[in-house]
Here is the input.
Amino acid sequence: MTSLEIPTRAASTDTVSQPLLEIDHLRINFILRRGVVEAVRDVSLQIRPGESVALVGESGSGKSVTAMAAMGLLKLPGRIVGGDVRWRGQTLLGPAGRDQLRGVRGKELAIVFQDPMTSLNPTFTVGVQIVEVLRRHLGMSRKQGRARAAELLDLVGISSPSQRLDQHPHEFSGGMRQRALIAMALACEPKMLIADEPTTALDVTIQAQILELIAEIQQRLDLAVLLITHDLGVVAGLCQRVAVMYAGKIVESGPIDEMFADAKHPYTQGLLASTPRLDSVDRRLTGIPGAPPSMVAPPPGCAFVSRCAHAMPTCSADEPKLVESGAERKVACWLCV
Amino acid sequence: MCIDQVQPTEPVGVGPGAGDTPILSVEGLMVDYPVGRSRFWGKQRSFVHAVSDVSFEIRRGETFGLVGETGSGKSTTGRAILGKAPVTGGRILFNGRDITHLGNRARRLTRRAMQLVFQDPYASLNPRMRVYDIVAEPLLVHGVVRRSQDAADHVTELLEMVGLPADAASRYPHAFSGGQRQRIGIARALALRPELVIADEPVSALDVSIQAQVVNLLQELQERLHLSYLFIAHDLSVVRHISHRVGIMYAGKLVEVADREAVYASPAHPYTQALLSAIPVPDPPVQRQRRRVVLQGELPDPSDPPSGCRFHTRCPVVEARCHEVQPRAVSVGATHWAACHRLEESNAHRPALPVEA
Here is the structure.
């Protein structure tokens, strides 16, 4: 990577105690003809400045919906039916949060989506799309914006940036598009980046490049990162804390090393055992039997009960609460109460 | 009428462990897709050289993992074996018999013994057919049963074999989750008792906890039915769990072939080394300490592949000759070869870039 024009931000010591983004008992329903899908059920998550947190789960666990709601991007039939999302203590939801959200989104809180093929407008050049962000949020002129956009492309490792600005997205490869999107997200020097499956659509050697880029940018800019992914391997190299979601709930959270070394929730254990490891010799994959429950009228007890090897009578009757279990760790399982 | 009756000829290709005839051998396979407009008279077409001079063998009861990134030609190789890609050179031998350019009728007989499992279990099952009909269809098409009703025993057995409840037969695909759908696809592929199953990214569309179920099922079925698999995937860690031997493809070329353990323990080709190091390990302390070879640049354009060694544009240990001369396959072990110039002088100074465990 070439020289970095963005000044390295000094660690904001005064705000360390206060979380940047606070998701507080969030509930999201999707109202469909076949019933109400309870996609997110009481999710709380805090991200502090400069911290990188992973939200891990499989398809349908509600991880992406949580992030979309935090950005105010939830679309019908999805609806926030409870809880709150706060940015530096101020709500982003409802009429009260509308102005706050407008000021925060895209400026202080940026997002990178999974699919770099569809997140860029194919009819405009990449330069126009980045300059638009700079003009909108920072009030730059076209000329200033263009110069800054070239700097940003350079920052994310795109060679000959001024020529690249005049190209359309189809002239970029998948990895380059993801880089361009990251550049766009970084345009306003955000405090936090939400990355929703940023490397899932990419080949593994390109994935390695993008992960390296995110890690480097996070360090240089002291950026908070919320990484949403299904891939525990991606989490391992990038994040400090991890929260595991299953069927709309966080079932376990904690510092990454402890979580991976000593997972307490049977789902986390199963997920780790299912993930094929390149460095293990001839280990038979364990897998988790069965499939996640329907989120239309989810079961009353623990949502994992039908797939859990340690299921007890209590599990199908009462729902385990997410409780403290060791330093900074939380688990929602009757085994750990 | 069965393909088994075709007597195998002499073992072709002096592959490692030659002795038993390989169930499949691919020799110097070339596949070129025409692209662009062909003018009314002219033949001014350009070609995408999807597969170029690929050779490997699959032995009976073995899983051969074919790994590569987008555009490496791994799926095209699978399609060529099934007769679904324009083969412009080389031969494909199935049970010793040349099946490269079979006509439709003869092809149909080979199809019985060679079946495909698709990547996307949502797109590969007809939503308007009951599971019963989906699984029974190949039996009807190939005349194993006359009427759909006669296939009941077969269908029950197949569903049991892939771990689906018997009442699944009367339901439609939408009632099943991704993993169960993939089981339906496997049951259908096994209906004709094939010898070789080509599985093209069979678990990539599935969640990780379900992936493991399907990988385990494929392994069980292999032992039970003595199947051979061509397992096409981009995920080297899944391939490690299922394959006996592994071939790595890059930009239409096979760059390295070895036994499973050899590929992971002592990869010889710089691309294999980089690919292995790029895969994140789900173990934070290990992952933080791993030395990663992050490749610069993008995958090459298959319509205009780089000259010489196709990896030279991204290779961290590139030399002058790599731009000009195509490397040949060099043996670096009993059943292990790789195509890299650095291996030609001596086998002593490999591996070039150690990938630590």
User: Anything to note?
Assistant: The radius of gyration of chain B is 21 Å. Confidence is low (pLDDT under 50) at residues 1-18, 348-357 of chain B.
